Amino acid sequence: MLNRRVRGQSSLELLVTLSFGLIILLPIVVLAFLQISSSTSNLAVSEAQASASKLAAIAATVGSQGSPAKQLVLVDVPPDVQDVYVGTQVNGIGRAIIFVINTNSGPSDVVAYTPVNVSGSLGTITAQGTYLVNVSAESSCPSAPQLPCVYISSS
After folding, report:
1. How far apart are CA 92 and CA 103, in angstroms?
2. Radius of gyration of the chain (CA)
3. pLDDT reading at 1 higher than 60
4. How would DSSP label each residue in 61-119?
5. 58-81 residue pLDDT tens
6. What one-character DSSP code corresponds to residue 91?
7. What's the start-to-end Cα distance of the chain, in Å?
8. Rounded distance, CA 25 to CA 145, Å?
9. Where are the alpha helices (DSSP H) in 1-147?
10. Is residue 91 a contact partner of residue 119, using CB atoms and an 8 Å limit?
11. What is the model's pLDDT at position 134?
12. Rounded Cα distance, 120 and 107, in Å
């Protein structure tokens, strides 16, 4: 009878010790998960900024050469991209390339500005991956024929 009691007591002691260990480790695991999630969002924003800046630089180069200059460029789209706008938020003529990224704190706009008017549509390239984008200088923009612009579209 004494042997059974000793085994039962040692099992209970082991269970209590493991419970305390799990109670201590649980907050550490939660903090690590939150840190990883934040790092992932920061990385996506950095990648979107690099892609937007690359497109803006190519648009400036093609725009300075004038019509009929064209260039194909590979653009890396990071995860969690909600939308991509060229020109303005409604894809009109403007001087910005805007990536909308879903972050932990909600949607965040990543913007790169160009010295030339840009227009176009990249709304179809929101999934993560590498895409071929056509950048061409136009003597008259499709959305506003009286203005020259650089037209950016997915190939």
Report:
1. 26
2. 27
3. no
4. HHHHH-TT-EEEEEEEE-TTEEEEEEESTTS-SEEEEEEEEEETTEEEEEEEEEEEEEE
5. 999 999 998 899 999 999 999 889
6. S
7. 81
8. 64
9. 2-65
10. yes
11. 94
12. 22
